[in-house]
């Protein structure tokens, strides 16, 4: 039924076509039959024309012809035209004999054949209507594509100009800060690297694992500055430097640690990270203590749910994702195939 869900312009085109057909029929009948009889015949014939046209467009053509069942399509078209022609002939003769004829006429074979053969012309008309509508829709789609292309080009220009300005500004701030406060300058540099990762790397299908690890380490360094007490991060790394993985795949675990796994009252928080490649798989594990007062109430949030959905899209069932909470510790483990 996609035909009836067309945009308003397509619907208006159909209405204009039917209006033109109705007027053409009405004025062709008018000289011989008068206004009342012409109007009735016009309505009756337009109904049968619509049956043939929409029967072909909505059912016969898409179900049989477009699926390559050409023989069935030809046979059913012939049968459909014959049946609708016979019905049209009987309906017209019944209306004429019942309401308009002074002397009822007998329904003959010749009359039925005449009405049935007239359906061929209507069938051809249905193909013309379909081509016209297809052209109209194609024109609309082309215009929409051109508009979307223009918007995409504009957005691309914006995405190029804005980060360029921002990175240049950060670089200027970095050089100013470097002379007065080298530690602050180093943090600005990490922030710049994180933002550059979001702009340049995250849209890609895969990134170098070293780039992903650097992104995580920059994030950890910036998170540390907002925590009053010491945070010790032990990060074990053992993988092929040439390895590439989807971007932002490991970040969810690290982000969850700083959201839920840091005890701001403790003078020392210890976080253990492990990223190891072994036997065709990459293993990523995080381990952190659960802050006092939140044990048993740890919520993995939407991050893990979204990550699971993304892993399913990327790897099907060929991955493992486990989270475990016990003895005041929270552990998350991810195993994905790599080549």
From TrEMBL:
Q: What GO MF terms are annotated?
A: phosphorelay sensor kinase activity
UniProt GO cellular component terms: membrane
Q: Where are the transmembrane segments?
A: 12-32, 38-61, 70-91, 111-136
Database matches in Pfam families: His_kinase (PF06580)
- InterPro entries in the cross-refs: Bact_2-comp_sensor_kinase (IPR050640), HATPase_C_sf (IPR036890), Sig_transdc_His_kin_internal (IPR010559)
**Entry keyword annotation includes Membrane:** yes
The domain of life is Bacteria
Tell me which UniProt keywords the record has, alphabetically.
Kinase, Membrane, Transferase, Transmembrane, Transmembrane helix
The residue ranges of the Signal transduction histidine kinase internal region domain are: 152-229
| Protein name, as recorded | Histidine kinase
Per the UniProt record, the lineage of the source organism begins with: Bacteria, Pseudomonadati, Bacteroidota, Sphingobacteriia, Sphingobacteriales
């Amino acid at each position: 039924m996609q035909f009836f869900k067309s945009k308003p312009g397509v619907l208006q085109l159909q209405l204009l076509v039917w209006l033109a057909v109705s007027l053409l029929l009405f004025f062709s009948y008018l000289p011989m039959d008068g206004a009342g009889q012409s109007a009735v015949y016009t309505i009756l014939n337009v109904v049968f024309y619509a049956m043939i046209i929409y029967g072909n467009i909505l059912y016969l053509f898409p179900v049989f012809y477009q699926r390559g069942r050409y023989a069935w399509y030809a046979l059913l078209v012939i049968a459909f035209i014959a049946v609708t022609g016979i019905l049209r002939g009987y309906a017209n003769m019944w209306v004429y004999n019942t309401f308009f004829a002074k002397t009822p006429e007998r329904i003959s074979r010749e009359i039925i054949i005449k009405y049935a053969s007239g359906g061929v012309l209507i069938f051809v008309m249905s193909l013309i209507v379909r081509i016209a509508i297809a052209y109209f829709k194609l024109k609309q789609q082309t215009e929409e594509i051109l508009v979307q292309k223009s918007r995409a080009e504009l957005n691309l220009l914006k995405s190029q100009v804005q980060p360029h300005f921002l990175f240049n500004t950060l670089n200027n701030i970095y050089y100013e800060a470097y002379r007065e406060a080298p530690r602050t300058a180093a943090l600005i540099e990490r922030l710049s690297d994180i933002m550059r990762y979001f702009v340049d790397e995250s849209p890609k299908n895969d990134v170098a694992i070293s780039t992903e690890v650097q992104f995580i380490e920059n994030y950890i360094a910036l998170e540390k500055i907002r925590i009053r007490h010491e945070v010790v991060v032990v990060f074990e790394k053992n993988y092929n430097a040439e390895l590439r993985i989807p971007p932002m795949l490991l970040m969810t675990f690290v982000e969850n640690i700083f959201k839920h796994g840091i005890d701001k009252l403790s003078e020392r928080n210890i976080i253990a990270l492990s990223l190891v490649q072994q036997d065709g798989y990459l293993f990523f594990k995080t381990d952190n203590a659960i802050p006092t007062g939140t044990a048993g109430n740890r919520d993995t949030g939407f991050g893990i749910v979204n990550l699971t959905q993304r892993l399913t899209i990327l790897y099907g069932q060929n991955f493992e994702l486990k989270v475990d909470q016990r003895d005041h510790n929270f552990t998350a483990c991810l195993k994905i195939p790599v080549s």
